Structure to design on (911 residues):
């Protein structure tokens, strides 16, 4: 965003401080990317379109978690629980009251915000490890409540939801979904980018650095923490609601601890403290199983291990996560920055001190 | 002439890749002697000690230049526990005892230098510090400051050091206790044939027992000599002993003529 | 009476698992969330050695227990050693990733079907009557083994030089290194011991019921027990296990069996709100994490 760049672009007006895309290269690059993103559904088949939709869904959740963990520094292991809360709010409202999507979506957001307060309350007393553990506990409780609803109401396999309907038009087509999700993801990213440049965003970064100092500088640590939890979980619950509509189906099994780990992995693999990182991480984690499958097909291992493909997936995912944590803690964004720096500094290798 | 037990040559230590805390100091600790390293806060004494005992990595500091030789072997890149097993033990400035362990466990936890008789050493600790023997089963967190310092010295002795590094012995202790501890250290050194390197702000105390002393300022050694020589030195009297002519009006060393004359540049 | 027996067996399981959490946490300040998977690995190890040494059940058990110890040391040496000095989150996530890796590998090596190591060992699990209650032979063994492990750990930490060093390293690693204690060696020992006890728990639980992927959940449920007691206290782990298992058994019996998955976590939350450092934990630990 507002980093000084080692190029000939200089800011000459104050308004330029507030531009998200500062340079012509950035603008051209973004325009190309936007054009590709808009053109994609007209070229991709059903299979690839589904993957693209999954990436968009995941990126909303990943950005939400990035706000909380990457910027505000609050560790959460309850992300799947929050997604589940959004999805189940949608499912329950639909089943019990036949509520349309323009009721369920705000309701999911409201439930998310309320849960954000509950998830965030322990953070006022707890830090680090203990906070992670308390969110983990809340995850199990949310999932329990969901499965309790399923079993009490006799939906033992899950709750089926009709696609959202506006007048006579229903949202079923994968291509239409793509544009809806693209709009939602773009809105989330824009919201987050702008939030991080506001007073709230700065407060979050301050409590990430050091709480005591932030408090001494006049930031209300409690408010910053709670607001981080509330914003993050509201976004997450909305993502959960969209997820429920997209799948047309809600089940407690879908929101296992593994889902939380996947989202945490997106944030870590992408690179903590960067919205771009959250997006890259979402792409990486969603594409990963398909990549493994393709690799196994290519090496003819697939026939022998076809029944175990999910196990291979699991093991490979764990391995990749370990490799990133040990060798590249800054994630994909870190790699990207290093590549950039290499080109910028060539033929030199070291950055000058103090940059 | 035999080489000294410890020889620090042109040592330079850099924190976080940018801050140079020690700028090329050299000092020697001959076997069997008591050497004092004096200086005010931020002079680089503690950094020097950390470099010798292998603890720079903890604060993201590095030896960038120079060497530390112990008995002719370079030790500046060894991990701390290896340095201890070579015979150098540090009595640290802060958090010097295991607070949740009892006194006797504090002594038993140490790993003595290979070849040393651990049992005999532990007995010796009880002999030198009868107070500790009485408090054997007390948790170390409940000891008073003086008792803690005794325990810290005791558990360092149990490592069977040949060279004992003592960081700020006098800090936070009553003058009488400091005196007593120093005399006991002197006695121990004589009995066990140890060598001592004392790091002190309190020059009066250190000059009482030392055979030789170095004065550090801003990461450099600015003066060195025998206690007699230093005591008679005008600047030392003024800055450290508070007995000089213009005592009270504290100036920087840089303004002092003798400093300019005697400061040493290395490397 | 039957309830009391059930509580005792469950508490023994939780206690045997949670002492591993405590051992690793109090020496190296790392929360090992791969503990459940390591426990499962121990059980599968027994399944393999049982078919390898068919007819010699004791040899099979001893071999797999030794293997568990070695695996624990290897985990530290190959993986966790690199996480020294990193942020808490990074270390915890590494153990989570390790758990996923282990789980996938286990399925690859030993299918996902339920196994019965006790049959492979050639033993049977009889039930023994105590008054009007019944306890399985393995359940009784579990209680005895847990008691032995805790007594052994207590003696080790209190009276042996390496045990005292382990406590010292956990309390003040810098000073410990200064006093000649090799930290890597201590941490590797803690991981080895923790994995060893986890392996024992895994083997016994697998012998009592069956062995499949759900075993890792037991590991996860034992973790609240460790935290309720205080993450740095062995006695606390024992106490926490009793509390968690008692509330779990009683709620399943009187309220709703579905709750069994969440009860430990509800107890945990209640504890975190009231007394985050646990029943017998040290208070200042909170600020260090």
């Amino acid at each position: 965003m507002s980093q000084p760049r080692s190029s000939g672009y200089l800011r000459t007006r104050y308004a330029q401080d507030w531009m998200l895309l500062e340079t012509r290269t950035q603008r051209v690059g973004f325009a190309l990317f936007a054009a590709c993103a808009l053109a994609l559904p007209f070229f991709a088949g059903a299979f690839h379109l589904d993957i693209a939709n999954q990436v968009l869904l995941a990126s909303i959740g990943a950005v939400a978690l990035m706000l909380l963990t990457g910027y505000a520094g609050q560790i959460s292991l309850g992300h799947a629980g929050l997604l589940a809360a959004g999805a189940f709010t949608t499912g329950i409202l639909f089943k019990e009251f036949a509520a349309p999507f323009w009721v369920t979506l705000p309701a999911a957001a409201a439930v998310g915000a309320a849960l954000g307060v509950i998830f965030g309350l322990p953070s006022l007393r707890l830090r680090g490890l203990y906070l992670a553990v308390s969110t983990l506990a809340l995850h199990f409780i949310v999932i329990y409540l969901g499965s309790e609803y399923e079993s009490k109401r006799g939906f033992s396999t899950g709750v089926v939801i009709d696609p959202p309907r506006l007048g006579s038009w229903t949202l079923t087509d994968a291509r239409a979904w793509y544009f809806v999700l693209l709009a939602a993801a773009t809105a989330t990213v824009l919201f987050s980018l702008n939030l991080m440049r506001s007073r709230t965003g700065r407060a979050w970064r301050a409590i990430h650095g050091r709480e005591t100092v932030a408090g001494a500088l006049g930031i209300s640590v409690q408010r910053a923490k709670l607001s981080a939890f509330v914003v993050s979980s509201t976004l997450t619950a909305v993502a959960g609601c969209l997820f429920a509509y997209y799948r047309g189906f809600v089940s407690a099994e879908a929101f296992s601890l593994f889902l939380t780990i996947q989202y945490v992995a997106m944030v870590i693999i992408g690179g903590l403290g960067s919205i771009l990182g959250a997006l890259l991480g979402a792409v990486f984690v969603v594409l990963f199983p398909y990549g493994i499958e393709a690799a196994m097909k290519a090496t003819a291992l697939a026939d022998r291990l076809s029944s175990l493909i999910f196990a291979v997936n699991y093991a490979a995912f764990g391995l990749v996560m370990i490799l990133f944590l040990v060798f590249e803690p800054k994630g994909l964004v870190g790699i990207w920055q290093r590549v950039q720096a290499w080109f910028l500094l060539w033929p030199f290798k070291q950055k000058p001190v103090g940059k | 002439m035999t080489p000294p037990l410890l020889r620090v040559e042109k040592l330079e230590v850099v924190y976080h890749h940018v801050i140079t805390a020690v700028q090329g100091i050299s000092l020697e600790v001959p076997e069997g002697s008591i050497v004092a390293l004096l200086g005010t806060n931020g002079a680089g004494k503690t950094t020097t000690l950390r470099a010798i005992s292998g603890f720079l990595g903890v604060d993201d500091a590095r030896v960038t230049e120079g060497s530390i030789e112990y008995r002719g072997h370079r030790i500046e890149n060894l991990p701390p526990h290896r340095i201890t097993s070579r015979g150098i033990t540090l009595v640290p400035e802060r958090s010097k005892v295991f607070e949740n362990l009892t006194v006797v466990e504090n002594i038993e936890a140490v790993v003595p230098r290979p070849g040393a008789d651990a049992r005999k050493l532990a007995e010796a600790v009880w002999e030198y510090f009868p107070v500790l023997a009485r408090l054997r089963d007390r948790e170390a967190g409940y000891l008073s400051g003086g008792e803690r310092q005794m325990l810290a010295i005791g558990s360092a002795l149990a490592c069977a050091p040949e060279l004992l590094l003592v960081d700020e012995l006098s800090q936070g202790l009553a003058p009488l206790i400091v005196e007593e501890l120093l005399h006991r250290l002197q006695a121990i050194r004589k009995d066990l044939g140890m060598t001592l390197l004392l790091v002190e702000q309190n020059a009066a105390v250190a000059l009482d027992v030392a055979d030789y002393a170095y004065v550090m300022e801003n990461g450099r050694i600015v003066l060195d000599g025998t206690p007699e020589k230093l005591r008679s030195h005008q600047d030392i009297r003024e800055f450290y002993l508070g007995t000089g002519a213009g005592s009270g009006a504290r100036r920087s060393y840089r303004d002092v003529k003798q400093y300019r004359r005697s400061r040493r540049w290395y490397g | 009476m039957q309830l009391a027996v059930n509580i005792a067996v469950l508490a023994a399981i939780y206690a045997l698992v949670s002492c591993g959490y405590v051992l690793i946490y109090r020496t190296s300040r790392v929360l090992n969330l791969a503990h459940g998977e390591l426990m499962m690995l121990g059980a599968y190890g027994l399944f393999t050695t049982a078919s390898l040494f068919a007819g010699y059940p004791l040899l099979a058990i001893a071999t797999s227990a030794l293997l568990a110890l070695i695996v624990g040391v290897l985990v530290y040496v190959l993986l966790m050693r690199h996480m020294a000095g990193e942020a808490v989150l990074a270390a915890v996530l590494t153990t989570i990733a390790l758990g996923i890796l282990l789980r996938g590998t286990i399925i690859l090596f030993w299918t996902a079907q339920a196994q019965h190591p006790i049959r492979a060992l050639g033993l049977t699990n009889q039930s023994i009557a105590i008054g009007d209650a019944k306890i399985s032979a393995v359940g009784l063994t579990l209680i005895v083994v847990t008691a032995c492990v805790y007594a052994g750990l207590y003696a080790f930490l209190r009276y042996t030089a390496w045990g005292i060093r382990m406590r010292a390293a956990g309390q003040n690693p810098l000073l410990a290194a200064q006093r000649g204690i090799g930290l890597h060696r201590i941490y590797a020992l803690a991981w080895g011991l923790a994995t060893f006890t986890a392996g024992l728990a895994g083997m016994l639980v697998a012998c009592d019921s069956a062995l499949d992927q759900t075993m890792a959940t037991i590991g996860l449920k034992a973790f609240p027990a460790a935290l309720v007691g205080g993450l740095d206290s062995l006695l606390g782990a024992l106490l926490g296990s009793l509390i968690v298992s008692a509330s779990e058994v009683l709620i399943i019996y009187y309220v709703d069996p579905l709750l069994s998955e969440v009860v430990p976590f509800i107890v945990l939350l209640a504890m975190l709100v009231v007394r985050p450092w646990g029943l017998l934990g040290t208070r200042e630990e909170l600020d260090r994490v």
